[in-house]
Write a structure and sequence with these properties.
By secondary structure, this protein is mostly beta strands. The protein contains 6 helices and 46 strands. Strands 6, 7, 8, 9, 10, 11, 12, 13, 14, 18 and 19 form an 11-stranded mixed β-sheet that branches. Strands 42-41-44-45-39-46 form a 6-stranded mixed β-sheet, with no helix packed on it. Strands 36, 37, 38, 40 and 43 form a 5-stranded mixed β-sheet that branches. β2 (about 60-65) and β3 form a beta hairpin. Residues about 1-25 have low confidence and may be disordered. Bound molecules: copper (II) ion. Copper (II) ion binds near residues 618 and 629.
């Protein structure tokens, strides 16, 4: 066993060493004259594409423009963000609620954009949290996270979040199999007892709201990646599995024993039939469903108490296993829906399965045995073709609109372009270094826009100015409009740029929200004008309904607060102009600032601990008199009888 570990480590070290010394062979370098022009977006001009790049272990989602690689916004999703007050303000704290309590961090991996008829429609972006299994939905009108839902019976929510052609479902497959239901049992009894849940969440056509429609309780493998069938394979979903050995320790060796693992092909249309026929079991569950209301600017949590579960052994035709070379990672479906690309990390070739052949094999009932009641098809019967020895360590594949596929190779650190159907390698370009995912705008739909390719790299070594032991991770932009790929630029990313989704800016830009309308604000503590601003006391709770407009708070002098009070600042931004947020900060508050958009109300709690007169101020530079946007709160001793009063300019 030890020998195997050493040899895998040796290959990795050798390869990284090799590419580290390689340097660029792109003639004049990536930023030679014409390439620089291709990524140059003149001041004031807009980029052609949006790219939504996951922040990986930052838990967030970052918005970039292509081709410039400029960062526009970090959208907080699964992690608290003091810059925006997300997860700190009373209104947004519920977004991070889970059955494990308040979880202010996650590991965000795979964004995917909503689709209509297999084409990106620019409405929502979904992304998964791996660690405490969740899926989030971001509204692309406001670029805010508006929903998070926890996935019960799941662990390491990795084969997630991918969408079907009409956004009927977003899926969440468990990476780790676990006891279902969770219980106290010996780990050594893993095999045959642990289960892997594949969850299908329905998405409401108008509101976008998610609901767990059903789960399929699969054998105890690891469900790594997934993609929907599309076009001709619409109605199916494909998941790569590894650890079909069902090992529970030293997986780098023990889960690499089988020559082939599986792609699980799930017929979700069939699942709908079984659900309608009542073939499910209802299991008790407890999961948080958090929804942000745009009018009250407030999130709330409801608790799911049960989940409907299908057992594939009792539902013939629901799931089939396609053998695929060992330890596959990516599971990618081409724009026509015919080809399912399985990338065996430890395989010399990239194996492509044929959907048509799969249907024929199922029709002919040609099986090569079964696993836990799920039929296994013959490898040769479902083989569409193989790209022979294209590189080392294939991970992920995306597609352009000309019948080409692009696969990343982690170990040999390159992107390889190959032809669907003929399987010939057409081009290869190095990445700097150790590429994971790649993204072509629309490359995960029936309609890719095959102009640019973004490679997301794990290691950057000598690519940027050093910043101590921690270097940025990075994306690289390639022009793929011609026969040969051309490296155009590098740009650093936040966290780990795990995966990304992109689309033409025109699908999103015209719908972007500019302000929240004050007249529809239904926040219970809103003050819609300075006249409505007031301070009220309920026991030791002091509620300040404060307004802000360039460049003052109302009120800006408050007296009668005492040590031991809990002061709620409910702050409404009265501005009704685009791009005029105000911030709010209070000295000694054990929380973040508030960043409040025009028309919005947000709340922070301040518990003053010391007697004195304490200032507050606006944190977001809002006008020429931004520095004048300030005020004071007088804090008296606990037993004092200073009456509660508030004023603006003495009134
Ligand atoms: Cu201000």
């Amino acid at each position: 066993m030890k020998k195997t570990i050493f040899s895998i480590a040796a290959i990795a070290t050798f390869s990284i060493g090799m590419i580290g010394c390689g340097g660029s062979k792109d003639g004049g370098g990536a930023m030679s004259g014409s390439n620089a022009e291709k990524v140059y977006v003149a001041p004031g001009e807009h980029d052609e594409f949006y790219a939504f790049i996951s922040g990986g272990f930052s838990g967030q989602l970052a918005v970039y423009g292509l081709p410039s690689g400029r960062l526009f916004k970090v959208i907080p999703v699964f992690s608290q963000d003091p810059e925006k007050g997300y997860g700190y303000s009373e209104e947004t704290k519920p977004m991070l609620e889970t059955s494990h309590g308040f979880v202010p961090w996650d590991d965000a991996h795979h964004p995917d954009l909503s689709q209509t008829n297999g084409v990106i429609d620019g409405r929502w972006c979904f992304i998964n949290g791996n660690n405490t299994p969740r899926i989030a939905r971001i509204d692309l009108k406001t670029f805010e996270t508006v929903e998070t839902i926890e996935i019960p019976n799941s662990a390491g929510n990795h084969s997630s979040s991918y969408l079907t052609d009409n956004t009927e479902y977003v899926v969440a497959g468990t990476r780790f199999s676990i006891p279902v239901p969770q219980r106290d049992m010996p780990i050594s009894e893993y095999k045959g007892n642990f289960k892997g849940a594949l969850s299908f969440l329905s998405v409401d056509k108008s509101s976008g709201e998610m609901d767990i429609a059903f789960q399929i309780l699969m054998p105890g493998f690891d469900y790594d990646k997934a993609h929907p069938g599309r076009g001709k394979s619409h109605g199916w979903f494909f998941f790569t599995t590894y650890n079909t050995e069902e090992a529970n320790s030293l997986l780098e060796v023990n889960a690499s024993q089988n020559d082939k693992d599986f792609i699980a092909a799930v017929n979700w249309k069939k699942a709908e039939e079984y659900m309608a026929a009542g073939k499910f079991k209802t299991m008790p569950a407890n999961y948080a469903h958090n929804v942000y209301d745009e009018n009250s600017h407030t999130a709330s949590t409801t608790w799911g108490k049960e989940v409907k579960v299908l057992d594939p052994a009792e539902c013939p035709g629901l799931v089939y296993f396609l053998p695929t070379p060992k330890s596959p990672h990516g599971c990618d479906v081409d724009p026509t829906g015919e080809y399912i690309v399985g990338s065996g990390k430890l395989s010399a070739n990239v194996t492509v399965h044929s959907f048509t052949k799969m249907l024929a094999a199922i029709e002919g009932k040609k099986y090569d045995g079964e696993a836990y009641g799920i039929p296994i098809l013959n490898f040769e019967d479902v083989l569409g073709g193989q790209v022979v020895q294209p590189g080392l360590g294939p991970l992920h594949t995306e597609f352009d609109d000309k019948g080409n596929a692009y696969t990343t190779f982690f170990i040999s650190s390159e992107v390889v372009k190959w032809k669907l159907g003929t399987w010939e390698v057409l081009d290869r370009k190095p990445t700097y270094y150790s590429v994971g995912h790649l993204m072509i705008p629309g490359g995960n739909s029936q309609k890719p826009w095959g102009k640019y390719l973004v490679a997301m790299n794990k290691i950057t070594k000598d690519r940027y100015l050093p910043t101590g032991p921690e270097l940025c991770q990075s994306a690289q932009l390639y022009d793929i409009s011609g026969d040969k790929m051309e490296l155009l630029s590098d740009f650093p990313t936040i966290g780990e740029p795990h995966y990304a989704a992109g689309c033409p800016a025109d699908l999103i830009k015209p719908n972007s929200t500019k302000i929240y309308k004050l007249e529809v604000n239904t926040h219970p503590w809103v003050a819609k004008s300075e006249k409505e601003a007031k301070v009220t006391r309920k026991g030791n709770e002091v509620h300040v309904q404060m307004t802000m407009i360039r460049s003052h708070f109302a009120p800006d002098n408050i007296e009668g607060v005492k040590v031991g009070d809990k002061v709620f600042f409910h702050v409404t931004n009265l501005e009704q102009d685009f791009d005029v947020p105000h911030g709010f900060a209070m000295i000694g508050a054990n929380t973040s600032e508030l960043l409040i958009m025009p028309g919005q109300t947000e709340t922070i709690i301040w518990e003053p601990k010391r007697v004195g007169v304490w200032p507050m101020y606006c944190t977001d530079f809002c006008s020429a008199l931004h520095q004048e946007m300030q005020g004071y709160v007088r804090v008296s001793p606990a037993g004092a009888n200073v009456p509660l009063s508030w004023s603006l300019d003495g009134e």
